[in-house]
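Curious: can you check?
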Amino acid sequence: MSEEANGLTVLSIDGASMHQSGVMPPLLVLQEIASRYEDDKKSPPGSFRARKTFQMIGGVGDGGLLAFMLGHFSMSVTDAIREYRNILKAVHQHSDAARWSKDERSQKFETALKAFVASKTSPSDENHPLANPKDENPRCKVFVTAMHAVNLQHPILLRTYRSRIDADPPKCTIVEAIRATTAMPDLFTPVTFGPPHRQIDYISPASYGFNNPIDQVRQEVKVAFPSHSISCIISLGCGHPGPVQIKDAKEDASRAVVQLAMDSVRAAEQTYRRFAGIPNLYFRFDVPYGLERAVLKFNPMLSEIRAHITAYVGQEQTSDRINSAVKQLVERPPSIEASELDGILPVETTATVWVKKCPLPSPNFTGRRDELDHMHAYFSVGVGSTSHIYVIYGLGGSGKSQLLFQFVLECQTRSPRTFDFVYFVDASLETTLETDLKAIAIDHKIGETAADTVQWLSCQTNRWLLVLDNADDKNFSIQKYIPKSINGSVVITSRNPELAGLTSKDSGSKRIEDLEKWAAETLLKKLVGSRGRPSDDEDSLVTQVVEMLHCFALAVTQAGSYMCATGRGYQEYIELFEVERSRLLRERKGHVPDNYPWSVYTTWAISFDQLKAAPRHFMQICSHLHYTGIPKDLFMCAAEAEPLEDVDEGPQIWLSEFMNHVRNSEGRWNPISFDEIVQNVMSFSLLDYDSEQKLFSYHPLVHEWTREAIQFTYGQDFPDIQCALQLVALSTPGLNDNSSASVLLKRLLLPHLDSLVPGAVHISSVPIAVRLSPVYYQTGRWNDYASIFECAKEIGGSGGWDLDTCTSNLAAAYQSLGRHAEALDLHASVLANRKQTHGDEHPDTLNSMGNLALTYTKLGRHADALDLGLLVLENRKRTLGDEHPDTLMSMSNLAASYLYLGKYAEALDLQISVLENRKQTLGDEHPDTLSGMNNLASTYTSLGRHTEALDLQVSLLENLKQTLGDEHPHTLSSMGNLASTYRHLGMYTDALELELLALANWKQTLGDQHPSTLTGMTNLAASYVHLGRHAEALDLQVSVLENQKRTLGDEHPDTLLSMGNLASTYTDLGRHAEALDLGLSVLANRKRILGDEHPDTLLSMNNLASTYQQLRRLAEATDLLIPAVGLALRVLGAEHDITSTLQQRLEQCLAHDSGELVDDSIHEELDTMVSTIEQYVHEGRLEEAIEHGEIAVDAFSAILGEFHPKTFMRVLDLAKNCMAFGRMDDVQRHMQRAYWLIKNDKFPSEARLQTMPMFEVLYSQLGLSTYLAEPEMNPVPTQTESFTGENSRPRVDDERPPQERAADAAEARRTPDIQLKDTKVVKDTRVTSGSTRATEAEKSSNAPAEVAVTDLATADRAGKTTTSAPVTSKESIRKGKARDRSSISVIWHSIRCSHLLTESQSDQSEPAVPMATRTPATGPSLDQTKVEVSSTLVKK
């Protein structure tokens, strides 16, 4: 017979424990087989080599060691016996072996193995790799089995050859592989190997039911030799246990020997049954009785073991079987194909058989379409090429089984059907699972056991589906009941998410969540039934019911059944649920269509009943916390913390009992024990875990049930709120612990603290409240923080607390709350005490000095703050060094003083140094580093370096949102600063959106009167001014000023800032007398308080000069501006915004003095024109308003110039009035003209930044298409874009990052203005700073014809417009070309217009120096409230 026709021969060797005779019995049996083989082959004695005789050898434990000796190193049996005994002696027969620990014994064993491998490799290599890359297909394939120490479900194979089913096998040496397969837990330590980033501990599978590797050998042969025939499989056992009675079991190893043998026997008997009909295929040799007395000895004599083996092989039956096995080895006739090694051959079946029908879904089944589609997609791919296992898991009552039933129904009603066979098995208990599988075997006449069914399904070629429903019992392994087949599919439902690991694909499992709201509402309506025509009120009530039940499937079903049975309506059920929640969820009433046997609470009680004690305690504690976002660090930090003092003993004792479960013997955190507790709860889907965020969460109903119903059901004592409060207190980091992890933990703890108590004032224990205070402080809950230290200060010495520390912390709280005067008194008192007690240079004294300096800053006493700050910094540098965190904090606070005093260069140098040091020592995301970024950005803004400020502020805001949350005061301050920078860069709409959001949050968290809220109102008013919404700005500014005068006084810098802003708004509204009074007062105060060179003083000079301009008092304006420009150039430099604004205004004044001036009466007539048009609109006389509006446009164009901003505004007003009257053609014409004007290079650049947002808003409100055409122009192009929605408006590149949009805005600001000599100078100078006057009408009239704009966005991006619009000249007006102008002076009267955007001036409303960075909400705000404050109270 040719070699290709020969059958394969395979050897399987059982494992044993190396503390007895080990694999000596199988070696001696194999020696007998080798001897007879040599006789048959007529070979010399000792020539038998297993490597040449067998094509595959597999082993486990010591059998794995023997597999390497015989199959890999080609040793003779005699040599293998000798070498094995040498290794055994090195491990167990040393004089000190009895005293060795497992670590020592493992080391001795490994040393012996390395010596053995080194002696058998050439060149000598004790670290020889398991798989030789030069020989990926050896003559004899050898493998051993091992097991992951954390996954005891099934063995893994360590091969000396390449396998097609293991693309990434473990990389290890031969020694490591032998150690892994022999690492029995009672004898050796696990062995670890693998890549550095994923090393795994391996142990021997022999102790876990896998001591006989026959099943692994059988499966491996199928994989390695799929197209070959098999001649025989020889399995060598280490000794049948027999009727062993262990009387003196002083070593657990003795019991292990018996257990290993029993495991081997069970596997052997199963294999006998598998191949019962195939003779001469499977040969099992195992010494049955008598040997156990020898192998249980630790130092058995070889002669004694050999005697037992000789007796065994001498039996007639055993001898005959050895002869048959030898004959198969010699002749190698084919007995079976490798693909048929599973035993029972396929049974041909043509008809669909239903052994146990899968239940139909509930007639009310609703929703779950996404989940069903996911399942159908999963089972439609790879059928016939790979196994399909799908696991549906989730909370009890979530609808897992109903989803499964619906899926099966859809599969079997499709054409063609998805599955030929569907078998339903109740897997809730192992007994029910065995019973159902056994019934299938009997029905098909394939056997009488569950194993027969599993084996039979594994061989089927038809498409079948096995349903294992409710596999919740963790007391048995369901894996052994899952057939292995590429044609079959398995679906499992379970509460245990761990079963998802059974599937081989990532998409092969689905967690069942709550129903979608619409599905829950539909389900409820189906169950309740129709009660007449549904109304809007009924739909609202249905929504309210399902939201109360959190759309949980079983809860909705139970509620619907209750209402149907009792006749109660939705409103009645809602009212009843509020008072009888537990009872309604605990008891069932009415018929439930899906026949689910339990209520909502009962199904969870069943799960809870199966938990161990510690997991129950864990759930009880968590029931008092918020149901989401429970940090794992809460328990870890509490376990590591020192016990609380002066607290209630009862809750403390109960909490200590639980914490002992998660601590090791040394009282430290034990993560393994904690993970076991959590895993126990999660195995019933009662708890979810976000591994990325390390947060636990409960379903809201489970959380409520835990808190309300467990005590009713189980009658147990429950920990009260004080217990959970103590847990949170133990876990709270100190106030000065500003690491990212600590800041995040404090933020995460707040919802749980709020769940326990509504506020700090309700915490009865002052020690606990003080321990919790950093949570309130870090999250901006300063009222709660203040209340804690008000209580602590009251009890002071009697409570054992340090009074100065209490007072200092209370002062910090008052300062954060804007109660600066109270904070000043407290800080001054503490400083005096500490100077007297500790001296001037003590760290506590310096802390107090720093706190007092910050309070001076808040009160506007910047010179005092500077003096004190310099003293603190000098002392800290000398005592702590330049890079100490406290020194850096002092530098930061000193920089704030410099900033407020206008000494920007000094502030900048300090802040750059602070930020660099903090980045280097603390990292980029540390709160102190973020504080430094904020302060540096504020200085950049003050210096007019807005793009640099923007880069820092965008990054800062993102970091603060992540670390502190969207509503934290520091985050809101950062939003205000970023909005101010947007405003400086002309991004007014972006600024407005941010400011509205920030102000709403300020009001909600700190109240209407807090300084930060007032700052938010000031910033919002500034944006309103830029957008032309002066009335809204005025209301805000008046309110802010009144509050600041009352709380800060008339001369506080913030009060003066608000007065300046209000004066600018008065100017915009034409209320020049009021503006003048305020401007004079502000300038006088700033000169006296800040000095002539302070930027705020220079800004006030500019704004006052603007008011003089409006009043035509140009000489006074010029006298004010000339020295102001000189000071600005020297102090701020030529590039600063304030310098530029002052220069532009001075040029305007000088030009007015020397140029052609328009008579004041003409200005008055123009003003009255506008007022009359407004009156017509107010009275509804739109036709007259439009007629006079056209006259006004011509007049403004002729007198002020076509490109004057006021002319532009008249065009916009005319378009609005035409829209109101329905004259759409005129609307299109006027909007086209307005767009042409604003995009023309001759339009003032700074005015464009202000007016473009108004144009865009109006454009959106009018609902026009993008194409705006003059009636006489070209036809509309065929392709246009349209804006949809009431709130839409044309935006330029609106989706770009802020930095890109800011760059364009900055470029627009740099657009050169038309030279003054090219403009026609007029008396009315109420224009935006830096704007140009109108060109002469004669020049305008020569402009080229206009080209229609088809895409506003495209034109805007182009940055300029090259077309001109036809205009009406001044001469045409004078001649009365179109209309009778003679009555103008008679019909125009009333007041000046006050609503036009062109009458606002950005340089007059204070934003030339950003308001946000000049107020308490910004600048050094992040440093001001935390540095100098003691973290905890210290006992006296």
In short: The first strand starts at residue 8 and ends at 13. DSSP finds 58 helices and 17 strands in the chain.
